Amino acid sequence: MSAECETIHKLAGELERHGFAFDESKIPLNGIYLLFQKGEEGHQGERIVRIGTHTGDNQLQPRLKQHFLNQNKDRSIFRKNIGRALLNQGNDPFLEHWELDLTTRKAKEKYLSLIDLDYQKTIEAKVSEFIQTNFSFCVFEVNSKEQRLQIESGLISTVSWCEECKSSKTWLGNASPKNKIIKSGLWLVNMLYKMPFNSSDIEHLSRLIKG
Ligand SMILES: [Zn+2]
Fold first, then answer.
1. Distance in Å, CA 164 to ligand 1 centroid
2. What is the pTM for the complete model shown?
3. Distance 26 CA to ligand 1 centre (A)
4. How far is the CA of 33 from the centre of ligand 1 (A)?
5. Those residues with Cβ within 8 angstroms of residue 43's Cβ, 6 or more apart along the chain or in another chain
């Protein structure tokens, strides 16, 4: 899988890299994003630490905002996981409350009075600061939802199986309470170690990315 993963990293290296905040005019309406993190290396460059996409039509930009900008952990599993690792690293008991999903009215009625919301806001701000300081990403356009999900899954499997892409000793993910994150070296818990791309899938991907 390492050769395929290396090609994925090469293809990604040819794409424009974005930071925060990003220029919306350069982000397609539909597509897949690859996330890189400072200090994490593989294949002679920064390694991919997360791959993601969106389901709804034209939702790539809103999805990127949910992950990287909007301060609401319950709308982004990525934010939730960064927060979990930061809290766990500091042995912060607030982790227990960070786990609660406050999206539904029922959950709000049940938990809201228990939670120190000012403190939660502080953690949300820390998560945003960490993301904006440490991550960058590239994107490529994929218009069909079915194709997006297929490619996302193949990419995640290929990168998770790669023996050259390993987390550094100081990677924040090592402090995650989620074993899958520690083990994979990726900010992901789903679609790991499934069917990786073969060389013909990679050629297909290359044509798609290069247009
Ligand atoms: Zn790799």
1. 5
2. 0.95
3. 26
4. 16
5. 5, 6, 9, 10, 164, 165
DSSP 3-state assignment of 136? strand
Of 86, 67, 85, 80, the C-alpha closest to 132 is 67
**DSSP structure class, residue 170:** T
Both tokens assigned to 150 = 């297929």
pLDDT for the residue numbered 8: 98
Dump pLDDT digits (tens) for 80-113.
999 999 999 999 999 999 999 999 999 999 999 9
Please, which residues have CB less than 5 A from ligand 1, an ion? 5, 42, 162, 164-165
CA distances from 168 to 41, 44, 62 (A): 8, 14, 31
CA of 5 relative to ligand 1 center, distance in Å: 4
